[in-house]
Specification:
homodimer
């Protein structure tokens, strides 16, 4: 019974996710789903990316949180259009939440929408939202064992962004071990090592994202 | 439909959780549910606690992870009886998983069972497992905003253990703000500031746990 219903929900979710992707496509917008644990540094990363990407893409943001609009306020300060979704107790965004949020964004003014998911290394990875790209932010302070312990997340994302490398020396985190474990699960996964705090590695990640957006625009046109 | 099924599952879960508590009670065992984000430091904290608590309690551990038995292997090295639950993709432990795990522990040799839940700041808080005490581990590197952003967790736990205080100087984390936000949600919540890495604050937390176990034993006898 549980399983059947779960499948039904996922099926409905996938249908709505496809509709979201169609809306994005019609408006020339590339969707990116940003995933990771609570406190892995997703919002700080977006802040730094938008400074780096200024003039290179036209971004908008959908923020997902159980409560508060703190993350949306931070993005708003940068002048980037943003919508906050509060899930109540919900542990992940679903496509219908994003469908509703999209209506509050002027998509004609954008070419990229970043959806910052609820901080969660498990449930979020199971729900497509209409995105063409996904990356997971894993911080060094979480430990490199998280890759093997939470495999679906790393199997279902195109890139692993290792954040907080400025704190590497205070942790037992091995970048090599994290990459090795991630590639066992997902041989094609891209890897970036960054510090959203210091800005290290942000230009490389930004360049990769711009490349993805442009390649998609090239195919679409 | 979704909601009805979710309630049904929770009702069944609560029934099994009560059965687990009865099994614990019959064996004079006090159950503790340990919660927190991936990488907040739950396993390292348990390792340090068991050294500190050596001879003061008779602990056993149930470890919950999606995959791997890495955490259980760490606990096993300390000579503490431990059972690993792998949830597959499941984002939280449920009472029926704990019910099954209990059968692998010799409860007559224990007086406390720590259940280390899956790393998750959302879903895990909704499922009782048979425990009499719950605490959440929040690490300074996650940010103090996590309390307000993930309120159910802090409403449903008796203590907040702020971990990684040795890294405070490298973060914007305010211990005062975290405590203030937690007390707004849960006025009676106990707070401990620790570093599982350096051992700071471990004796105070250990003392509190022993006090809880002994008070319960006093009531039960």
């Amino acid at each position: 019974m549980q399983v059947v219903v779960a499948k039904e929900i996922l099926k409905v979710n996938d249908t709505i996710a496809k509709e979201n992707m169609e809306v994005f496509d019609r408006n020339g917008v590339y969707g990116i789903n940003v995933l990771g644990s609570p406190g892995s540094g997703k919002t700080t990363l977006l802040e730094k990316l938008f400074v780096e990407l200024d003039g290179k893409i036209r971004p908008g943001v959908i923020e997902g949180d159980l409560e508060t609009s703190r993350d949306a306020e931070r993005i708003d300060k940068l002048g980037v259009p943003v919508v906050q979704i509060n899930t109540g107790g919900g542990c992940h965004l679903e496509a219908n939440m994003v469908q509703q949020a999209i209506t509050s964004l002027d998509l004609s003014a954008l070419n990229t929408v970043f959806v910052e998911n609820v901080g969660n290394l498990v449930c979020t990875s199971g729900y497509m939202l209409g995105e063409r790209l996904r990356f997971v932010v894993l911080s060094t302070t979480e430990g490199d064992d998280k890759v093997s312990k939470y495999p679906p997340m790393f199997q279902r994302t195109q890139a692993m962004v290792i954040n907080k490398v400025d704190l590497l020396e205070f942790t037992d985190f091995s970048v090599e071990r994290a990459i090795e474990d991630a590639r066992k699960l997902n041989p094609d996964i891209e890897v970036f090592t960054i510090s959203a705090r210091t800005g290290e590695g942000i230009p490389e990640l930004a360049k990769w994202i711009v490349g993805k957006v442009q390649a998609w625009q090239g195919e679409a046109s």
